[in-house]
Structure formats: structure tokens, C-alpha cells
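fyi for ur records
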Amino acid sequence: AMEAIERIKSQISEKRKRLKHVSEEISNIELLKKELNKLEAYSDAVNKRIEEFRQRKDELSERLTKLVSIKSVREELLKRKARLRSVISETGSKEKTYSALVEICGSLGIQDWLLRRYLSAIESDANDILGLLTDGELSVRLVPEGTEKLAVRISDHLGERPYESYSGGEEFRIDFALRLALSRTLAQRSGFPLRTLIIDEGFGSQDEQGLQKLLEAIFDVSAEFEKIIVISHLPQLKNSFPARLEVEKTAEGSKVRVFA
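which gave:
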């Protein structure tokens, strides 16, 4: 019995030693866990710092690329500046000559003289045609206003009135006279005769007398053209010209008949 008791005591002592050893191991493990947690926190902080440095590196790299590009542009601008200075230096002696040419060819030089000369011719021709169309009741004046504007002044027995105050038939006759006079002047200036005159509609705004006057004006200037083409929907004009094309709209489509 005593031996058994001693054996048990020995086992208990041994167990206590092992328990103490395990407790010490557990304490060491807890310390290691705390150290591990610290290391993990430090590792996270280091990784975060590394990521910040990486972003900063990318930003600096992008900035460096922009600076290199700006430097290249600056160098190109400096080269262009040098070339421009060279050009300005080379052309400086011609400045007075160019200034004189600009003054001569400008709005107050030859250009103004030519403009007034041609305006006078256009105005005279337009009034001749308009006199024929209106029995001398209407006349026009072409008045330059500044360097880029031209006023058309219309007069009748009541005096000078705005263009918009005239009837549609009168406006068409005024337009016809001005356009024909302008065409004559441009032909004379270019040195090439007018070959074709095309009149598209406008006759519907005329009364019988106005229509007859327009026809007389067309025949009066017919010697100046190889062809005169009149486009109209008025049936009373059909027999006014020696040749014509009649376009008729049918269910099968448009048909053209030639009368010569």
C-alpha cells in the first residue's frame, strides 16, 4: 500500500511538472501571438506605405512625361520663333512697299475708283431697262455706304421710297433691270459676251401691261444673247416665243413636248 501511495505521489508530482511546463508554453504562445499581431500590424503599415510610394512614383513618372513633352514643345516653339524672327527680318524692308500697295488697292484707292466707275455703268443700264419696263416711272440710284455696303435707292413720281414699299410686280421689274445691267457690266469687264439669259418665273406678279413691257424688254435685249430661256407657268406666254418646251405632269410621269 505504501508503495502504491508513493507511486501515485510521484505521478502527481510528474503531472504537476508537466502542467507547469504546459502553462509556461501557453504563456510563451500568448506572447508570440502578441508579437505576431504587432508584426502583422507593422506589415500592414509597411504595405500601405509601399502602396503610397508606388502611387507617388506613378504620379512623378506621369509628371516627368508631361514635362518632357512640354520641353519638346518649348524647343519647337523656340525654333519657330527663331524662324519667324528671320522671316520678319527678311521682309522688313518690303513693309513700306506693301503698305503703299494696300493703300492703292484698298477701298479708297483703285478699288474705289473702279467700283464707282462700274456702279455708274450699272446704274445707267438699269435705268434704261427700267425706263422701258415702267414708261419712265421708276429709276434707281446705287449709293455706296462705307466700304462693304451698297444702297439701292428707288424713285417714282412720289419721290424716293424704300425698295420694300413697292409692289411685287414693281420689285420684279426693278430686280430684272438691275440683274441684266449687272450681267452686261460683268461681261464687258471680263471681255466675254453673254451667251445665255435665263429668266425663271416672276411673271405671275405682273399685270397685262407689266407683262407686255417685260416681253418687250426681253426682245429688246435678245440681240445680246445666243439664247434666252424663259421659265413660266403662265399660259398666255406660250405663243410669245418662237420655240418652247412644254412639260406636262401625268399619271405616268412628266412628259415634254417640243414646239419650234
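The chain is about 60% helix and 15% strand. thats all i got for now
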